[in-house]
Amino acid sequence: MDQYTDESPPRYCPARELPPYSYVPGQSPHPMSDPRGHSFGRHEPPAAALDNATWRQNDTWLFAIDLFNHGYYWEAHEAWEALWHAAGRKGPTADFLKGLIKLAAAGVKAREGRSAGVRRHALRAAELLTAAPSATCFGIDVAGVMTAAKTIAGRADEPVQTKRRLPIRLTVV
């Protein structure tokens, strides 16, 4: 986990193109339901479940990290939700993914300029991440993300950066 800078973060799934815009409710066309949306009419195949032996080949997982790190919070939320469904929506892996989903939701709220939503989702993310199956989960330093989520919650009332990005990047180790 790194602090956000203006430098472009590394890509973990460079074969998949980033969307032309980051969806923010009420500010841009809904990606899937609006004919002008960046993913309208596109159907993603079901995500493969995350596995300790093969997570480095899981394009949905790696692309979700890319989306999050590049400020596509709603899109990262959707990708992690697909993995959460693949994990059966219960258990340590599902709770870990739900924590990341909530962190992405905090990013959406930051984009909307809603500090109460940022705080609520970031705190819930930190709480859910405590159930992670290991200290490093699918290449992510869980304690670092939990600390960042708590920091984001504590600073939710501070003016957001001009790009309205969360001050965190996920780094795969």
Molecular structure report:
The protein has a two-stranded antiparallel ribbon. It is globular and about 40 Å long. The protein has 173 residues and is mostly helical. Helix 4 runs antiparallel to helix 5. The chain has five helices and two strands; from the N terminus they run H-H-H-H-E-E-H. 43% of the residues lie in helices and 2% in strands. The chain has a domain of 100 residues: Hyaluronidase domain-like (Orthogonal Bundle).
Chart the SSEs and their pairings.
Elements: H1 59-69, H2 73-86, H3 92-112, H4 115-129, E1 136-137, E2 140-141, H5 142-154
Antiparallel strand pairs: 1-2
List keywords for this structure.
globular; 173 residues; mainly alpha; two-stranded antiparallel sheet; 5 helices; 2 strands; Hyaluronidase domain-like
State the total count of DSSP E strands: 2
CATH class label of the domain at 55-154:
Mainly Alpha
Helix content: 40-55%
Mean pLDDT: 90
Q: Which second-level CATH architecture of the domain at 55-154 applies? A: Orthogonal Bundle
As laid out across the biggest beta sheet, the strand order is: 1-2
The parts where pLDDT drops under 50 for at least 5 residues are: none
SSE series: HHHHEEH
Short précis:
With 173 residues, the protein is an all-alpha fold.
